[in-house]
């Protein structure tokens, strides 16, 4: 489906007044062209993205102008796989996980955006990779990938609080890679209860001894 849309994009761009390609993709390619000449990508007016995007699209200049679209469409496919994988790691059934992955892969919005040349699929893939790492208890790789995601596009910063709350809860993997904070609090609560119970028993024992005297 995505390959067909990529091919159709070439036809529409060549023969129709309204192009299929997103205007930002043209900006990305121009920025990559400046970078290929040894200049700054920001010499291209309106380029307001990470230089990593321009670097990733250097093959647009050296190989084929559709390289970036193929890259973004590939990221979109990887995101679909990650949706299913993350859900499986979270204990969701295989059928439900496959349904969710299919909902992503066959969503007209996602496959249209990526094949028109938007880099948003890369950000989605990176954020799903963060969830995948966290679900496997790999906090440091998750932090590194999250840093790259916020460097590419600043808006993933809004996920910082949910991630902190997730980590603060201590729950990382349903298979028991880490002990939940709730269980830890329960253990501390049980210890305190046992301690108070022991003190109460001692007090009662002392009271009984006094009465006997």
- Number of domain units: 1
Mean pLDDT score: 83
Strand content: under 5%
Q: Report the uncertain regions.
A: 176-213
| Radius of gyration (Å) | 27 Å
Shape: globular
Q: Write down how many β-strands occur, each being a DSSP E stretch of 2 or more residues.
A: 0
Secondary-structure element series: HHHHHHHHHHH
Task: Give the termini separation.
Answer: 92 Å
Q: Return the structural class.
A: mainly alpha
**Main pleated sheet:** none
Number of helices: 11
Helix content: over 70%
Features:
213 residues, mainly alpha, 72% helix, 0% strand, globular, transferase
Structure overview:
This protein is mostly helical and 213 residues long. The chain has one domain (1-169). The chain contains 11 helices and no strands. It has helices at 2-15, 23-36, 51-56, 59-62, 67-89, 94-105, 108-116, 120-135, 139-152, 160-168, 181-212. Helix 1 (2-15) packs across helix 7 (108-116), helix 5 (67-89) packs antiparallel against helix 7 and helix 5 packs parallel to helix 8 (120-135). 29% of the residues are buried. Belongs to the PIGM family. Residues 197-213 have a biased composition (Gly residues). Residues 183-213 are annotated as: Disordered.
């Amino acid at each position: 489906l995505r390959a067909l849309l990529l091919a159709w994009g070439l036809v529409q761009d060549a023969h129709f007044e309204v192009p299929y390609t997103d205007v930002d993709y043209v900006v990305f390619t121009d920025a990559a062209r400046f970078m290929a000449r040894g200049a700054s990508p920001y010499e291209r007016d309106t380029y307001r993205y990470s230089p990593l995007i321009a670097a990733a699209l250097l093959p647009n200049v050296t190989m084929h102008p559709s390289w970036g679209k193929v890259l973004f469409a590939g990221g979109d496919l990887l995101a679909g796989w990650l949706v299913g994988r993350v859900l499986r790691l979270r204990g969701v059934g295989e059928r439900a996980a496959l349904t969710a992955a299919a909902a992503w892969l066959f969503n007209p919005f996602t496959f249209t955006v990526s094949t028109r040349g938007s880099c948003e699929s890369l950000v989605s893939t990176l954020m799903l990779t963060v969830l995948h790492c966290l679900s496997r208890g790999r906090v440091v790789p998750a932090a590194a990938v999250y840093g790259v995601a916020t460097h590419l596009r600043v808006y993933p910063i809004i996920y910082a609080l949910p991630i902190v709350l997730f980590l603060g809860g201590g729950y990382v993997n349903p298979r028991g890679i880490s002990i939940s904070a709730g269980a830890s609090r329960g253990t501390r609560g049980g210890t305190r209860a046992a301690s108070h119970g022991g003190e109460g028993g001692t007090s009662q024992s002392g009271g009984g001894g006094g009465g006997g005297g």
